[in-house]
Design brief:
Order of helices and strands: HHHHHH
Number of helices: 6
Strand content: under 5%
Number of domains: 1
Distance between the termini: 24 Å
Number of strands: 0
Helix content: over 70%
Length: 119
Amino acid sequence: MIETRFKILLDNNVIDTQTYHDTLKVHQEIILNNGYSSADSVVFLTHLAMALQRVKKNETVAKVEDYIIDEIKNLATFDKIVVLTENTLKTISTPLPQDEVHFLWMHLANIVEKGVQND
């Protein structure tokens, strides 16, 4: 499912080859290897792919509201979210600005919180 989704984006020139490979690598190394669901990670992975493309095109994303960042930082799982984010940033080949990182936090918070609820 994930490969097919991102192959369609690649074939339609929405993402480039490096973004395609980086996204699939994050899916395997960060999502699956940590026991999270592919279905739960679709929004995160899609945002990541589009963030990589935005950076390559020198486009920006709107900032995450401060109150949302504060809510994420107050989660019991925030340390795990930070580790997953750091590992994601190490896995991809394009550095992301802090505004994009905050969106990754938001999406990873949803994945981690759902994972915690399913334990």
